[in-house]
Amino acid sequence: MTNVLVCIKRVPETSGQVLLSEDGQSIDARHVGYTLSTHDECAVALATQIASATGGDATVLTVGDDEAVAQLRDAIAVGCGSAVRIEAPTQAYGPADVAAAIAEVVKARAAHGTTYDLILVGNDATDTGDFQVGVRLAYALDRPVLTGIKSAEVTGGRLIARGDGPSGSEIFELDLPAVVTVLEGGVEPRYPSIPGRMKAKRTPIEDVDAALPGEPVGSGRVKLKLPPQKPSVVQVLGEGDAAAPAVVDLLIELGVVGR
Fold first, then answer.
1. 32-44 pLDDT, tens digit each
2. What φ, ψ does residue 57 adopt, rounded to 5°?
3. What is the pLDDT of residues 198-244, one digit of tens each?
4. CA-to-CA distance for 181 and 145, rounded, in angstroms?
5. Strand 158-165 relative to strand 168-175: parallel, antiparallel, unpaired?
């Protein structure tokens, strides 16, 4: 039996045009909705798979305000059995603060008999891309960590994880408990059913206060920067029948037709 804790983050929807706040510290989300990053969606799917296959439980956790409850319920709707929200001012928190807050909750719950054999975290968040929480969390809990994992399973009490390395696919084996950061592409995100959504509405969310040793250290971020937009280029090939040779040449250049 493997009990899994999967940690998620509420992030702005970035499928459309991305705007930054005036101070350049975050994405301006006034005109967009909120969702989970694709890495988090895959982490949730993997958590429910492992818990189901081993007869364990999958718990979803987030650090944030009341609005983050919506993303917790999304995770419940696709298979997580319980949810925990660490109440904290996310704008003031950096990855070190988030990892410390999660670690304190994990330790406190372990002291009361609730332990997690495996902790899954999205490889990075789509709004800040810090890539730090998983490693910092593992260090705080004194657990081994794997990053950039695409799929995993638990067999005989050991974790078998797979990811892409510089020379191809890599397979790792390690003892539990452990922390793993999940990269999109290896597990298909799950989509909620109607019964799943109804269950998510009924499931209580456990709220806990963040416990930090002092004031939040923050992100240390100077500012976010958007890459320059690629200019649009229009090439007029000609008019009428006179354009036909130019169209053929273009199709050959693109590899659509052979010479």
1. 677 888 999 999 9
2. -120, 150
3. 999 999 999 998 888 777 777 666 677 767 777 777 777 778 887 88
4. 8
5. antiparallel
* Structural domains of the chain, ranges and CATH numbers in brackets: 4-209 (3.40.50.620)
Is-contact 129 46, C-beta < 8 A? no
**The pair of three-digit structure tokens given for residue 68, joined into one six-digit string:** 């983050």
pTM, entire model: 0.81
Token pair of 153, please? 């399973």
Nearest Cα to Cα of residue 123 among 74, 161, 84: 161
Mean pLDDT (whole number) for 18-35: 66
Tokens of 113: 């008999």
- C-alpha distance from residue 143 to each of 4, 138, 176 (Å): 14, 5, 8
Sign, Cα dihedral of 141, 147, 151, 155: negative
- Euclidean distance between CA atoms 150 and 167, whole angstroms: 16
Decide the pairing of beta strands 158-165 and 145-155.
Answer: antiparallel
Which residues touch 96 (CB under 8 Å, ≥6 apart)?
132, 136, 217
Nearest CA-CA partner of 182 in 120, 137, 136:
120
Kind of pairing between the strands at 34-35 and 11-12: antiparallel
Name the average pLDDT for the chain.
Answer: 87
